[in-house]
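Researcher: We plan to redesign the surface later, but first we want a full-length starting point. Tokens attached.
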């Protein structure tokens, strides 16, 4: 059975826990995500530990944001780890995004539009004009024009971004919560089924899976729900 298009966020307190979670979920999902905290604590070793023998795709979520030369150097520094995806901030600008793309040609560079923790009031306070949706569309277009092969946006904006950038750009959506799950520190959220129906290609899900008593079973349940929702019979095929 093909793994579901889910990236499990391995926001673990230690390397052993991250590796255990990864081994439990990889039969059911396509990707595991290593974030900044885990990478800074354990360095490159964490990538080999969570990849294990399964060869699961690793999404290295470092959200690079610096001058183009520095971002290019950072991208080259992780090239030997062979991440499937590496994130940069779209707000770093076109030259920075292009520098990452050029430095890491075998990895999809994903530009983060707006963090899902930001509300409209937060954006106003930091000087971003317009609604979150307007800002996300502007940043999405800028990033794709600069060479980004993927975008990170909240599920609330994914349909509009898909309409803006077309079918060939990978859309990654954090802030995905199964029905009934707590939103925690995410401000713009949706269910996996809704996000996928609106055009997402890869759903980032963390605590609803890793915070459960059995992360493997939780991942399997969400994957099965997606398959049921998008089976050909349910799409009228």
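Model: Full-length starting sequence:
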């Amino acid at each position: 059975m093909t793994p579901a298009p889910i990236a499990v966020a391995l926001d673990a307190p230690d390397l052993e826990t991250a590796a255990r979670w990864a081994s439990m979920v990889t039969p059911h999902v396509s990707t595991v995500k290593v974030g900044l905290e885990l990478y800074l604590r354990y360095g490159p070793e964490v990538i080999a530990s969570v990849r294990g023998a399964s060869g699961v795709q690793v999404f290295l979520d470092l959200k690079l944001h610096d001058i183009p030369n520095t971002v290019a150097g950072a991208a080259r520094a992780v090239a030997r780890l062979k991440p499937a995806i590496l994130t940069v901030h779209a707000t770093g600008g076109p030259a920075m995004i292009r520098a990452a793309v050029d430095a890491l040609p075998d990895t999809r560079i994903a530009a983060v539009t707006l963090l899902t923790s930001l509300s409209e009031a937060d954006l106003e306070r930091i000087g971003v004009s317009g609604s979150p949706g307007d800002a996300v569309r502007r940043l999405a277009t800028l990033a794709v024009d600069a060479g980004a092969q993927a975008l990170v946006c909240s599920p609330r904006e994914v349909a509009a971004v898909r309409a803006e950038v077309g079918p060939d750009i990978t859309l990654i959506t954090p802030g995905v919560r199964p029905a009934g799950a707590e939103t925690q520190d995410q401000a713009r959220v949706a269910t996996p089924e809704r996000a996928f129906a609106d055009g997402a290609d890869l759903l980032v899900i963390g605590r609803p899976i890793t915070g459960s008593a059995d992360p493997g079973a939780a991942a399997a349940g969400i994957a099965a729900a997606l398959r049921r929702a998008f089976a050909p019979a349910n799409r009228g095929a």
